[in-house]
Structures are given as structure tokens and as C-alpha cells.
Write a structure and sequence with these properties.
- The protein is an alpha+beta fold and 194 residues long.
- Helices cover 23% and strands 34% of the residues.
- Strands 1, 2, 3, 4, 5, 6 and 7 form a seven-stranded mixed beta sheet that branches.
- Helix 2 runs parallel beside helix 4.
Length: 194
């Protein structure tokens, strides 16, 4: 797992949430949601730039590294859902973090977790250290699978500092426990693409 040296990495953070029951009923299978985050220096903090491609062009390396780390947190189970996002410190702009999680990042992230056909849900914002962010999750092969609409919350006590970016990739082993509000199922989505 090699990240392009353009990105000055300060820290890696991993979050795992394992849910075994909800609503007083045990789950048929434990739901694991996981997120991996990397904290990097923002080269555009405090500086206006029309061209943010220096952040975007090497971002496949971030997508691969974060995808591999997040997938490993699932303990050998495949990823059914995914999401992405990030935070930018207050000396930067939201556009700086968005530049890091475009299609370049997303395609590499997909490859790292074993594929996915659906667009990747995303959330970004300007924040101070410790600010929580909900990374949206959706079924990786069909965005209209309602049972998999979910999120994982991540907050890093020491990031982002004003001149930093936090880039996050998230995965889950399934949809919400006891999902029962209708809509297309994962099995139906899989049958459509078979």
C-alpha cells in the first residue's frame, strides 16, 4: 500500500462498528461498518488556486490505500456497501477535499474493495479538529437498494488541523439490521445484473 509522495501524511485512523442486535432482536448476521481515514497536509491551505488537479491526479493512490485498509477491517467478509468523504481544516476550502475524492479516487477505491457498479455516496465539509462527519453508505452495485442506505460516523480528536485534509473511505458488510421499509433488495439488484 503505497501513497503518492505528493501527499504529506501525518496519521492514519481506522474505525470499526460491529452491531449484533437492534430493536431488541438479534441480527441474522452481524453488521460490520468500517472506515479508514488518512490525515494529510493541505498544500492549498490559505492560498487561492484555480487549478486543484495536483490534489486529484495522484488520488488513486489514496483510494487504493484507504480501500485496502477499510476492507481489511471487515475481517474477511466482503464489502456490500461503500461511501467516501472527508474534512478540510479551516484554512482550506471544501473544494480542496472534494478534489481528493473525485472519480480518480473512487475508481481506485472500488477496485481495492472488489468492485462496485453504483456511484459512491459522498460527504465533505470544512471543520475543526474533532468535528464528526457522517460518511453515507449505499449498496455498491445499485444505489436504489434502500436497505443499505446507512452511514458511519467518524471524528478524529486531533484532525483536521487548520492546514490539513482528512480523506475517508467507508465500507459495510450489509444493509441496516432488520431493514423492512421496502424497495429493491440486494438480491433483486444482483439478479438484474446477472
Amino acid at each position: 500500500m503505497t501513497v503518492d509522495p505528493y501527499y504529506e501524511i501525518r496519521a492514519w485512523h481506522d474505525v470499526v462498528q460491529e452491531t449484533v442486535t437492534d430493536g431488541g432482536r438479534p441480527a441474522a448476521q452481524t453488521l460490520i461498518k468500517a472506515a479508514s481515514a488518512v490525515v494529510i497536509k493541505n498544500p492549498f491551505a490559505g492560498v487561492w488556486a484555480d487549478d486543484l488537479s495536483p490534489l486529484t491526479l495522484p488520488s488513486a493512490s489514496l483510494g487504493t490505500a484507504l480501500g485496502e485498509r477499510a476492507l481489511a477491517l471487515l475481517g474477511g467478509r466482503p464489502a456490500e456497501s461503500y461511501g467516501k468523504g472527508g474534512l478540510v481544516g479551516i484554512a482550506g476550502e471544501q473544494e480542496h477535499v472534494v478534489a481528493c475524492v473525485t472519480t480518480t479516487f473512487g475508481n481506485a477505491f472500488r477496485d481495492a474493495i472488489g468492485g462496485g457498479e453504483a456511484w459512491i455516496s459522498s460527504a465533505t465539509k470544512v471543520a475543526v479538529a474533532g468535528t464528526p462527519i457522517d460518511i453515507p453508505l449505499a449498496y455498491k452495485d445499485e444505489v436504489y437498494v434502500r436497505s443499505h442506505y446507512d452511514a458511519i460516523t467518524i471524528a478524529l480528536p486531533d484532525a483536521p488541523r487548520p492546514d490539513e485534509l482528512v480523506i475517508i473511505a467507508a465500507v459495510a458488510t450489509g444493509g441496516r439490521l432488520h431493514a423492512r421499509v421496502g424497495g429493491m433488495t440486494a438480491a433483486e439488484a444482483a439478479a438484474r445484473t446477472a
